[in-house]
Design a protein that fits this description.
The complex is a heterodimer of chains A (586) and B (185). Chain A is α/β, with parallel strands linked by helices. Chain A contains 24 helices and 20 strands. In chain B, the strands form 2 sheets. A 5-stranded antiparallel β-sheet of chain B has the order 2-3-1-4-10, covered by helices on one side. In chain B, strands 5, 6, 7, 8 and 9 form a 5-stranded antiparallel β-sheet that branches. Chain B has 2 domains: 93 residues, 2-Layer Sandwich (Alpha-Beta Plaits), CATH 3.30.70.260; 71 residues, ACT-like. Chain A, domain 2 (Alpha-Beta Plaits, 2-Layer Sandwich), CATH 3.30.70.1150. Classes of the chains: A alpha/beta (586), B alpha+beta (185).
Chain lengths: 586, 185
């Protein structure tokens, strides 16, 4: 830049976002952020006008999940900022790179309980990787550069930049900080990406020595774009792989080494393989309670290699034998090198064939199971999912909300490629799927995007389909409508003596077809098994507007297997039809 | 302060650790540190904060009660704060610690002499004298303050304020500073 250019804070903000290569942002204007919406009119950035700020946040997340680039949301102060708290927390829990711009009352009014004032940085402090209240227009470019740098490096996460109205209106002298200026401005922030060489050698040795090793992949594998090298590691060593809820797609489900999802609703093989292994190679995974079950009883004989870019994850839940702080991709590349060196030097990998055959025995005995429908039976949600899966075009991205439908989707979908699964894992945010699917479709317009939703979830954020219709974002929504808060109903059935308290959403209200049509979507209702395929075909053939397919499914269907909260993974509850085979899980 | 501490030559119960946290001197940084402790359920025993010789940085001296969480987790979580530049764990035996205490003590004329004498023995200061009370101050190692406080208690403490400790590593040849960080995520 030559010469000194004077801009308003708002102009500087939009220019800074353009310089950060932002192509799309999701938002909704209001009083304090108004100045920023003016230069947006002449910007190259596409702005998607949402109907509720929470929608903007989840759209930014969906966009980030499928593109790997930071999602950007911009909203005003006060209630808009508080509406953003849920998506920020969601992104924080699932390490989603996201930058959120909020308006704030003028610096002179801060602290006076002004109209639409709230302590945004105070409220969002514990749900962001970092946040910043900018008090001078001159500081805006640096704040934006820092925000993108922090959001996308190390363990990714959401960053919020709070901009008072007068800061946006004041003039400043444009200056775009250099990389050095950015890193000098944050002397305490130096993410470590390369693993410790000695630990990497240790890991390689342990991998070759172990007789019952298992690769435990978490969402970090996807964040680090490590799927390819992880596959190389699995194939070189022939070690079986489990993919957690956040890592679905990081390793292809149709690969012979893939055991699928472990955890509370993981399949019996994945759950048991973790329990019985003598070495867990945890890559970008955080030993979440939904995976470990009762920690004291988790994988009791396993040594742990834990690769994670966040040092605080090492030993947070389970003390690793070999902790490696670093980027999953870089570390796995080094582990591969070290293994090859050992093999070239004459080392031999321990015989894991007994382990492999034990694992395949479990796979044969305990496939996912649900009762097949007979004529006149209620429609099974799993059947609908199988049909959506089988009818989905190559490369389809699937999103879900939170609850039974989420678990069934994760169980029954066949993930063959990374970044085709978008869900709310850590926070478990009901209502996530509709806006996340919209964000995903914006990020990958070339892909078919299906959102599998529950009726409870759909009612929380459905209004964003108006956004989808008006912005021409043709997502497909499949509602597995069981007229219940299904997962809560399942817990009440299993653990509260069938005392159903406040879980029935039935009574035929709302009419999902009419609702879809009112929002500019095509609405389809499916009540019988024979209608399923044609409805899905029709949905797949419509690409000029969103489609909502309501599947009226069995109200009483439960998700199996299940490890009850707080129980050991050894006590996994199998589908009743498989219970007599329990002894095979030894 | 409990009796065990009173007789402990280091003035430390074993579950207390001192963290010297160098942070960027920016608005809200103390709130970030404090809310992290609250959010993760860690206990702060005492806390003192002030700018360093370089006014771009502040030093926060935190005494943590590590029964509430492993020290390692506290340090790692703290280091995730972008504004935190360096964290040093100070071993109480290898560092110098100081704390300031002010106390207003009941001292009718018949015992005032005793309070003054006690304050002089501890090399404290008399800050104010009233008809039936005196205000004294003492700076020193936390255990010395504990001793002084314990003795004053017999006369009746009206009000007391301690600053929380500040600490720096000792300058001996093997100042055992455990630099517990250097890497962030």
């Amino acid at each position: 830049m030559s010469g000194k250019e004077t801009l308003t804070g708002a102009q500087a903000l939009i220019r800074a976002l353009e310089k950060e290569s932002v192509e799309v942002m999701f938002g909704l204007p209001g009083g304090c952020i108004l100045p920023a919406y003016d230069p947006l009119l002449t910007s190259s950035i596409r702005h998607i006008l949402v109907r509720h700020e929470q929608g903007a946040g989840h759209m930014a997340e969906g966009y980030a999940h499928v593109t790997g680039r930071p999602g950007v949301a911009m909203v005003t102060s006060g209630p808009a900022a508080t509406n953003m708290v849920t998506p920020l927390c969601d992104a924080y829990m699932d390490s989603v790179p996201m930058v959120c711009i909020t308006g704030q009352v003028s610096t002179t009014a801060i602290g006076t309980d002004a109209f639409q004032e709230c302590d945004t940085v105070g409220i969002t402090r514990s749900v962001t990787k970092h946040n910043e209240l900018v008090m001078r227009a001159d500081d805006i470019p640096m704040a934006i550069r820092q925000a993108f740098h922090i959001a996308t490096t190390g363990r990714p996460g959401p960053v919020l930049v709070d901009l008072p109205k007068d800061v946006l209106q004041n003039t400043m002298t444009w200056h775009w900080p250099s990389d050095d200026e950015v890193s000098d401005s944050m002397p305490g922030y130096k993410p470590n990406t390369k693993g410790h060489p000695r630990m990497i050698k240790e890991a390689a040795k342990l991998i070759l020595q172990s007789e019952r090793p298992l690769l435990y992949l978490g969402g970090g594998v996807l964040k680090a774009r490590a799927a390819e090298v992880v596959r190389e590691l699995a194939e070189l060593t022939q070690i079986p792989v489990v993919t957690t809820l956040m890592a679905r797609g990081a390793f292809p489900d149709d690969h012979p080494l893939c055991l699928g999802m472990p955890g509370m609703h993981g399949n019996a093989t994945a759950v048991t393989a973790m329990q019985k292994s003598d070495l867990l190679i945890a890559l970008g995974a955080r030993f979440d309670d939904r995976v470990t079950g009762k920690v004291a009883a988790f994988a009791p004989e396993a040594k742990i290699i834990h690769v994670d870019i966040d040092p605080a994850e090492q030993g947070k839940v389970r003390r690793p034998d070999v902790p490696i702080v670093g980027d999953c991709r870089l570390v796995v590349i080094e582990i591969l090198k070290a293994i090859r060196e050992l093999l070239d030097g004459g080392d031999k990998q321990a015989d894991i064939s007994t382990w492999r055959s034990r694992v395949s025995g479990w796979q044969e005995q305990f496939p996912l199971h649900y009762e097949k429908m007979e004529l006149g039976d209620a429609l099974k949600p799993q059947f609908c999912l199988e049909k959506i899966r089988d009818g989905a075009p190559e490369g389809t991205i699937v999103c879900s909300g939170v609850g039974q439908h989420q678990m069934w989707t994760s169980q029954y979908w066949n993930f063959t490629e990374p970044y085709t699964w978008v869900n709310s894992g850590g926070l478990g945010t009901m209502g996530f799927s509709v806006p996340a699917a919209i964000g995903a479709k914006v990020g990958r317009p070339d892909r078919t995007v299906w959102a599998i939703d529950g009726d409870g979830c759909f009612q929380m954020t459905a209004q964003e389909l108006i956004t989808a219709s008006t912005e021409n974002i043709p997502v497909k929504i499949g509602i597995l409508n069981n007229s219940y808060l299904g997962m809560v109903r399942q817990w009440q059935e299993m653990f509260y003596g069938e005392r159903y308290s406040e879980v029935n959403l039935g009574g035929g209200i709302p009419d999902y077809v009419k609702w879809a049509e009112a929002m500019g979507c095509v609405g389809i209702r499916v009540e019988a098994p024979e209608e399923v395929e044609s409805a899905i075909d029709k949905a797949n053939s419509i690409n000029d507007r969103p489609v909502v397919v309501e599947f009226r499914v069995d109200e009483m269907e439960k998700v199996f297997p299940m490890v009850p909260a707080g129980a050991s993974n050894d006590d996994v509850i199998l589908h009743p039809a498989q219970n007599d085979k329990r002894e095979y899980l030894r | 302060m409990n009796a065990m501490n009173f007789n402990n030559p280091f003035g430390e119960s074993t579950n207390h650790h001192i963290l010297s946290v160098l942070v960027q001197n920016r608005p809200g940084v103390l709130a970030r540190v404090a809310s992290l402790f609250a959010r993760r359920g860690y206990n702060i025993f005492s806390l003192a904060v002030a700018p360093t010789e370089n006014d771009e940085f502040s030093r926060i001296t935190i005494v943590v009660d590590v029964e509430s969480a492993p020290l390692e987790q506290i340090v790692k979580q703290l280091f995730k704060l972008i504004d935190v530049v360096r964290i040093t764990e100070l071993d109480p035996r290898r560092s110098v610690e100081r704390e300031l205490m002010m106390a207003t003590v009941r001292a009718e004329s018949d015992v005032r002499g005793q309070v003054v004498e006690l304050t002089n023995i501890f090399e404290g200061k008399i800050l104010a004298v009233g008809v039936d009370a005196v205000t004294v101050s003492l700076d020193g190692s936390p255990d010395k303050l504990d001793d002084f406080e314990e003795l004053l208690r017999g006369y009746g403490i009206v009000e007391i304020q301690r600053t929380g400790r500040v600490a720096l590593p000792k300058l001996d040849r093997e100042a055992r500073i455990r630099a517990v960080k250097g890497k962030a995520s």
